[in-house]
Amino acid sequence: VAVVQYSDTAQTNFNLNRYGTKHDVLQAINSLTHKGGQPINIGSALQYVRDHAFTPEAGSRIRQGAPQILILLSGGRSADDVRNSVRELKEMGVTIVAIGSSDADTLELQTISHEPRYALSVADYGELPAVKQNLGKNRTQFMFFPAEKTVLTTNWYSKKRLTSTKRDIVFLIDGSDDVRSQFISIRKFIANLVQNLDLDQQRDQIAVVQYSNNAKMEFSLDAYSTKGDVLQHVARLQPKGGRPQYIGAALQFVKDNVFVPKAGARINEGASQVLFVLAGGRSRDSPRGPARALKRGGVVIFAIGSRLSSSAEMQAISDHAFSIPDFVNLTGIQQHVLRHLTAIESPKTLNKQAQNK
């Protein structure tokens, strides 16, 4: 472990090879003092880390294939350009997790991070324990790769993998007054994902539910059996309106009325159960209980939140959390979403794995 502080300049508190025990590292951390200074120059700080921290002289084991991981904490927008430094770090195999407070720039965090799901936002640093929990416990959400394997192409998934298992996929979309102007982007996102799925061979089934102050079923999993019919209905979707957003009640509605055999759910046949939650604002009720119940029932949850949503809330309810400035930015995460969709295993496979342990 190494620690570097930055503001207008960067300074090393201790290098990767400075301490050999957890006790010594914790003592050093407890002795840290605030360096001060302004403005915030993240670009030059990242360059400093590249030149002075991720080097064999400073203890980096990159040549031995050790994963190189950088966790950046940002309290504001950078006064300098971060792009060149970020590119150089990624090219040398560093996986970057960017965590920003409410004063940080969301787009900047996503530019810096390994991919959008590695960009996390907190209202203030008092919420960091919740982020720490997600970083530590969920290896499917945050995967750190050996240096020589960090470069990923955006279209690596294959059609064969995408159609190798049955999936019941439900879109729970914010249809409130707050997202009315961005609703076309939500429709387009659903349509683009549907285009990559296999509905005509009945491997994939789609359902859409809108929510605001209440939930409304647009169509159930067994409503359509062809891609063309689904796309036609998606193209006709209009925002239901209303406010505020009750995500908890909407999740409960989906559990009780959508992921059930009478509405077409095929969990008894071993189909993967997948839920996409698109949130344009904070929930007025708690979504955590219904989300836990869905996960216990075998549902894998993707949560995509705009800047008005709560990042901590999205991370708490999901297996895969994405943060975007606005829904017009949905196209930027589509390939990442598809990549994770291909990796989802059926409940039967997971049960076999559990029995073999």
From TrEMBL:
Its main location: secreted. Residues 1-135, 168-341 form the VWFA domain. Keywords: Cell adhesion, Collagen, Extracellular matrix, Repeat, Secreted, Signal. Pfam families: VWA (PF00092). GO terms for biological process: cell adhesion. InterPro entries: ECM_Assembly_Org (IPR050525), VWF_A (IPR002035), vWFA_dom_sf (IPR036465). The keyword Protease does not apply. The keyword Nucleus does not apply. It is found in: Secreted, Extracellular space, Extracellular matrix. One of its GO terms (cellular component) is extracellular space. SMART domains: VWA (SM00327). This is VWFA domain-containing protein.
